[in-house]
Amino acid sequence: MKKVLFATTALIATAGMAAAEGVNISGYGRFGLDWNEANDVAGNLDNTSSTNITSRFRLTFDVSTETDGGVTVGGRIRAQAENRDGAQGAATFSSPQFHVAYGGLRVNVGNIWGAIDSAPGLYLNTTSVGTGIDGMGFNSLAIKGAGFDTFTSAGVGRGGIEAIYSAGGFTGHISYSQQNGTAGTSTDANGEERTAIMLNYSFGDYFVTGAYQSSSNGATGVTTGGATVDLNDDLMFFAAGADFGQFGATLQYAQTEQADGVTLVGEAEIGAASTIVAWVSNTDSNNIDTDPVTAGIQDGVTDGTAFGINYEYDLGGGVTFVAGLVDNGADDDSNSVQAGLHFSF
Asked: What residues have CB less than 8 Å from 244, skipping those under 6 apart?
């Protein structure tokens, strides 16, 4: 199986950046067709067809240099344009990320990756790290109804700082962000603060991961008992995975203020070029009311079981044919299908 199963996006980027100096340009493109029952609304009031083009083009610019003492200093910025549900989007630059790295330690400032988002086992081992061409809603994630920090590829990201340390099979990741100027429901002008930690240990063909996030002054909801909760606070995530050669498996568990989630993922390599990833995710909702306009009505995460399957065929030269199917577990309009091409450079 692909060893991406045991590496975070952050660690892959760390290794690449530490090995090179100067300027490096990389990226990918993807395009295909998306059929989604939810887009075919009654009377087509939003002029959105059930079948649309989905596409994205991304350029990543990495720059770095090294001091006489062997400390790497660098930065990253992205430009990205995408088309979703038939609406064209112009290219937009991301906020920058800066870093300092030495040995197994790296510190990022600015548009951080985030400790939760970097947890191994959170995303699928596919080209989109979800299902299909564009992730198809990322319903495979066990985390439901809570926000967490991630690198924002188009537009302004959350400002923060994080430290990542790796030694042998151990990786530790701590991140902190403060969204100034976008206060939550309180009168605190500093906006939401998030602090997260992730610990991972890989041994042979196995890994175990645990992560936790605390948050204050963010979005809130009301429980059935009338208590107010911070929707992004007390987020817990655990995962374990194994690589059995031609096959692989990952088990996720997450707990948020809105719901508990469990996801089981299976992977299989078929022949020399084909890969199938299948998953099933169950959500147990806490029935949180998240909209004060409709007070007393549960409008957050709902109970249900979602499932999906992703097929990829390696065409060579960095080009992959991708197809995916997802049932998101909703009572109505739950099915979607995608197929297209992904190429990296």
From this structure: 1, 205
